[in-house]
Structures are given as C-alpha cells and as structure tokens.
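Lab meeting minutes (informal)
Scribe: AK
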Amino acid sequence: MKPVRFIQFVRPRGRKRSIEIDRPVLIHEMYLDLIESGYRFEAEVLTTGAVHMDITHPDDEIPIANLVSENGPGLTAELDKMIKRAFQRGIDNGRLLVRVT
C-alpha cells in the first residue's frame, strides 16, 4: 500500500490541508502519473457528511473524474474506480504522461 494525497478543503472557510489514503501499488502508480501530468486531487466533506472528491487538470474547467460517497468503508473502492477512470480519460485526451503498463 502507498499513499494517495488529496488537498482537503475544510469548513467553514475552505482552509486547505493535506490528507493521505493508502491504496494498492497499481492505483498509486496511476496517481503518480496523473500528478506528474499536472492533475490535482481535491476533497471535501459535505454538510451531509458525504465526501466529494475530484481530479482536475488546471487547464480544464471541469474535473476529469469525481465522486460523491458516504464517508466509510466503501469510499476506498469508489476512490480506486475514480482514479482508474481519470487515468483512462487522461490517456484518451492525450494529456497523461504514462509510466504504468
């Protein structure tokens, strides 16, 4: 397991802090490829208690992938799916520098 880092925006004023979620090596390598290609990983806990996460490139107005999930055990599986989706979309749009095979 290796860490995937997000910038979390904390209520009430959107203060930023770094959080880490340990994920399998393959997911971590996809994460590194996305980071090295300029993508940002951001998260926030909504007022409902659900978690919103997204992966965005600075040149884009909308995220390449995002999720809203309950903050619990199912979140990590959803996170893995989101990273895989962003990785594939990054390849498709030609913006991703790929190391993972």
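Next up, CB showed the second protein from the same session:
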Amino acid sequence: MNPQQNFNTQPAQQPVAQIQNGGLVIVPGEDDVLNYPLAPGYSMAFVNSNFTNLWVKTSGLTQLEPPKYEKYQLTKESMSAQGVAEPKDNPDYATKADIDRLWTEVKKLRSKGGETK
C-alpha cells in the first residue's frame, strides 16, 4: 500500500456551532443560568425545561462589570384563528359595550337635569 494514497488533502472540517431552539438555551434551573459562561458584551436567553420561566443574562462590556439578570414568568394564552390573543374575562378593563352603556346612562342623567360638575 502506498502511504500517499491515505493522505487526505482536504482540511479537517470543524463542527459548526448552531443556535438551537431559536436562540434559547434550555437549563434545569436558575443556578445554571447564573453559572453559564458568557463573553463580554453578549446576551443570552434561557428557559427551564417546562418553559415556565425565561431568564435573560447580559454580560458587561468588560469583565469588571457584573452581569445583569432578568427573570420572566411565561404564561400560555389561547389564540383565535386569526392569530390574535383571545380576550380574557378581566374586570380591570372595560369593553366598548361597557363604555357605550355608561355613556347612555350619563346622557339620561343629564337630560333629567341631574347634571353634575
């Protein structure tokens, strides 16, 4: 066997690092977020395995600056067929029908002479 036949002239291919899950890193818990190494000036998003929490870790521009952490709690919302979130029964806001009903009552009170300042 000729030794030159086994010589590969093509350079070895390095594995290409790919961002998976849309740039999210899945971690078991908050301790893993705190200990995850991050280059200066970068941000990374982390989610726990059941997708209930999201953390954003941002490192400072120098290694002297401490990293910043933000934690978010994720909630699932149902979507309509048009892709718009369906409104929830929330007493903290009024619908247009509520405002129209109240405006009608105000007009009735004003017409009865009960106008207030």
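CB comment: The first strand starts at residue 24 and ends at 27.
No objections, moving on.
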